[in-house]
Structures are given as C-alpha cells and as structure tokens.
Amino acid sequence: MTSEGESLVRVETGQGVATLTLDSPHNRNALSSRLMTELLAALAAAEGDESVRVVVISHTGPVFCSGADLKETAEATARAAEGAPAGGGRVPVSMLGDVLAAIWEYPKPVVARVGGPARAGGLGLVAAADIAICAEEATFAFSEVRLGVVPAVISATVLPGSPRERRPSSC
C-alpha cells in the first residue's frame, strides 16, 4: 500500500519527454482523487516546461488503470449523504472529467503506454491521449456497465476515435 508521503504519479523528464507513471499498483492504479490531483499537477508542470515536447502516461504493475477508485467514491458518497463534505464537496469520480479534458486539450502530444488492462476511466485516459502504444497484454473494457453505470464521462473521449460507421447518428 502506498503511504501518504509517496507520490502516486512518478514524473521523469529527459530528452524532451516527460513520463508520468501511474504508481498505485496496490489498487490497480485506480483513479483516486489523490492520483488524479497529482496527474493534473504533473500535466501542468510538463506543459510549463519548455524542454518537454511530448508526455507519456505509463504505469507500474500489471494493470494500466482499473478506472475510478470505487471504494473512495462509495465512502465520499456516504459522507455526502450524511451531510458531511465529501473531500471538498466533490465525489472523487467527478474529477475524472477534468483529467480527461486536460489530456484531450493538452497542447503537446500525449502518448498512452499501455502494458495491461485498461478499464472504465482507464480506457478514458487511453482514448484521451493522442497516441496509444499497447502491449499484447493490453485489454480494454467498459467494466462500469456491469454495475449498471453508463460510461458517460469517458464517452466524450472514446467516441471521437471510434470508426465512423459505429458513431451514433445525430439524426
């Protein structure tokens, strides 16, 4: 388990590349509010670094990203239902839209280096990137549908990359 002092997003820069490594393998690199906050900060720092020409999002452990941290989301939702602020008043999964928009609108190329499963919001990270480089072990799924949840937050990044004949018609 990662301690409070350890970063959940490791940052390495060199030769024009900023590598942002999701480093929370104990929960399959789940998108906790802390991990997403660190990822947004790392993206902002790389954007401001003129020596960085491309950003690579990678991971430790066998799973690229399992999606939202459902345990943290359930706890925050329960606190909110009791009237207590849920981590500043936001349910952590609501941050995912901010993260996906930051990657989607990023002014430098973003590469997702995927060496294992990408589920739910993790698939959104891959789809928001400009390029995805995937190992044979990489698999992709909208696992939230098994819980009866529509993958609405990530659909904004997934649908534009879909083959045209599979896109929903506007008429």
SSE layout:
Blueprint: E1 9-14, E2 17-22, H1 33-48, E3 54-59, H2 70-81, H3 96-104, E4 110-114, E5 118-119, H4 121-128, E6 131-134, E7 140-141, H5 152-158
Parallel strand pairs: 2-3, 3-4, 4-6, 5-7
Antiparallel strand pairs: 1-2
Task: Summarize the structure in words.
This is Enoyl-CoA hydratase. Belongs to the enoyl-CoA hydratase/isomerase family. InterPro entries: ClpP/crotonase-like_dom_sf, Enoyl-CoA_hydra/iso, Enoyl-CoA_Hydratase/Isomerase. Pfam families: ECH_1. One of its GO terms (molecular function) is catalytic activity. The termini are far apart. It is built from five helices and seven strands; from the N terminus they run ββαβααββαββα. The protein is an alpha/beta fold and 171 residues long. Helix 1 packs parallel to helix 3. It has one domain (9-162): 2-enoyl-CoA Hydratase, Chain A, domain 1, CATH 3.90.226.10. The longest helix has 16 residues, at 33-48. The strands form two sheets. It has a five-stranded mixed beta sheet, covered by helices on one side. Helices cover 30% and strands 18% of the residues.
The amount of beta strand, in percent, is 15-25%
Number of helices: 5
Q: Termini distance?
A: 49 Å
The CATH class, by name, is Alpha Beta
In CATH, the topology is named 2-enoyl-CoA Hydratase, Chain A, domain 1
What is the SS-derived class? Answer: alpha/beta
What can be said about the biggest beta sheet?
Answer: 5 strands, mixed
Helix share, percent: 25-40%
